Amino acid sequence: MRPFTRHALLPGLCLFLALGTTATASEPLRFFAVGDLPYREAEKGPFRDLLSAAAAEQPPFIVHVGDIKAGSAPCTDANLQEIAALFREQPVPVVYTPGDNEWTDCHREGAGGLDPLVRLRRVREVFYGDPRVLRRDALGATHQGPGYPENAFFMHSGVMLIALHVVGSNNGHDRARPASVVEFEAREAANRAFLGRALTVAEERGARAVVVLIQANPLFERGLNPRGLRGFKDDLIALMGRFPGPVLLLHGDTHRFKHDRPLIDPATGSPFDRLVRVEVPGSPMVGGVWITLDLEAPEPFAVDPIYVVSLDALNDGAD
C-alpha cells in the first residue's frame, strides 16, 4: 500500500491502494500514466491531486493517454483549455495523446453534434500549438510536424517512447461519414511512417526497449479486428519482427486496468512474450499506473496501479 502525502489530499481522501510490483530507487526509468480522466466535475479535484502527488515523486514525465472528458459531455474549448492549463501547471513534461472523446465522438448529440474534424483542429491548437503546455521539448522529443503534432518520440534511459494518434470509436473510421474515412486513412499512413522513423532512430541509438503510447484499446481480448484498428495491430506485429527487445504498449479507452500479453504471433499462434500491454484504469476510478522499466530484470516492465480512496465512499459502503 502506497500512502499519498497528507498535504496533497483533498478533504476526505486518505490513501491510495496499490497493486502489483513496487519499484526500487535503482531502476533507471519510472514514470506515471493516466487516462480516461477526468470525466465528471467531482473527479477533477482528485485528479489534480493525483497528478500533483505523481509529480512530487519527480518522474521525468507524466503520460496521459487521452479522454479528458466523458464521451457524452459537450465538446467545448473551455474544457480543452482547462485541462491544458492543468498540464501546464505540472512541474514535469506531460506526454499527451488525444482520445476519441476530445474529437471523434463530438458528432454525438450529447457532445454537441459538432464536426469532429473541427474539434480535432482545436485539440491540436490548444495542446500542441503552445509548447509551454506539454513541454515535450524538454524531453528532446521529435514531433511529426504541423500536420500531426501530437505524434512524438524521444529516448530516455535507453528506452524509445513513441506516442501515436490511435483513438477509440474504431479509430475514427466511420463509413457513414466519408470525411472521417479520408482523415483516418491519412492519419493511419502518417502513424505508420512515423513509427518506422522512430524505430530507425531506436536502432541507431541502440535502444534496449520500446514503449508505444496510444489511446485506443486495440481489442485484442475480444478477438475483433475492426477496420480502424486492423492496421495498427499489423504495425505492432511488424514492430516485433524489426525490434528484438522488450516492447510495452500503453493505452486507455475501456477504463479497466489490464496487464497482459495479448498480441498473437501469426507465425506461432502464441502470444509474443516480449510484448506487454498495460491499460490504465479510468473513470469512475480515479487512478493511474506507475511504470518502471528495469531492463536487467526477468520482467522488464514493473507495473504499480494506484487508486484514490475516498473516506466518504468507504463510509457509505460500511452503511
Features:
single chain; 319 residues; alpha/beta; Purple Acid Phosphatase, chain A, domain 2; six-stranded mixed β-sheet; 8 helices; 13 strands; 32% helix; globular; disordered C terminus
List the helices and strands and how they pair.
Elements: E1 13-18, E2 29-34, H1 41-56, E3 62-64, H2 77-89, E4 94-96, H3 116-128, H4 131-134, E5 142-143, E6 152-156, E7 159-163, H5 168-171, H6 178-204, E8 209-213, H7 227-242, E9 247-251, E10 258-260, E11 275-279, E12 287-293, E13 301-310, H8 311-318
Parallel strand pairs: 2-3, 3-4, 7-8, 8-9, 9-11
Antiparallel strand pairs: 1-13, 2-12, 5-6, 6-7, 10-11, 12-13
Describe the structure.
The strands form two sheets. The chain has a seven-stranded mixed beta sheet, covered by helices on one side. Helix content is 32%, strand content 20%. It is globular. It has one domain (6-318): Metallo-dependent phosphatases (Purple Acid Phosphatase, chain A, domain 2, 4-Layer Sandwich). It has 319 residues and is an alpha/beta fold. The longest helix has 27 residues, at 178-204.
